[in-house]
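In this supplementary section we document a worked example of the pipeline. Step one takes a protein sequence of length 230 as its only input; no multiple sequence alignment statistics are reported here. Step two produces a three-dimensional model, which step three serialises into structure tokens for compact storage. The input and output of this example are shown verbatim.
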Amino acid sequence: MSFVKTLATLAVGFAAARGVDRYRKAGGMDGVKEAFKKAGEPGGAVDQWGQQAEKLGLPGGAKAVRQVYEQFGGASEAAEAGLGNLIGSMTSAAAAGGKAMGDMMEAMTGATPASPIAEENARLMIRAMIQAAKADGEIDAEERAKILDHLGDASDEEIAFVEAELNRPLDVMGLAEAAGATMREQIYSTSLMAIRVDSPAEQAYLDQLASALGLDDAARARLHSAMGRA
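The serialised model returned by step three reads:
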């Protein structure tokens, strides 16, 4: 596979492991469809994903992300059925859900292999996602199994990297240092995507991460809004 695709499928793995409660609180399918529509608004999540695609050096960049969203995010019955199938895969922790997300990322990148910079940035975002998920305690065995189940197409190197990060202790300063100046917002957004922020420990982690990354309140508010977490 690639670390770029592993990042995409890992996101689905986390959704499968922890997404049922969030899905219900969001109002089920109606709530998810409404949030999906809002994601396409100017400055919304799709634009944020597009910025990440540009930073990762993915072919097509933000334009490709917008095209994928418009293709799958319409209000047609077929689009709603496709979204329903994706949610079903996520909430049942089906490995097919992760493969679907990875295939969509592959369609975005086309036949061109991910650049070394894109692969390195993807590793960093995987690291950020896993660290955030551990902010309120260790990932238990059941969650870990559901996450790894989605990486069936990943290489031994990629699986070993994810497992090593799952075992690594929290290191906010190390993560911030690795992010440097160019990946600060992407690391924060990826961390935010991995958690619900419904516990003091998760909020404290985000506060600490933002401080280490040098993000002020205005930047954080903008990122939360873009990720639908305002």
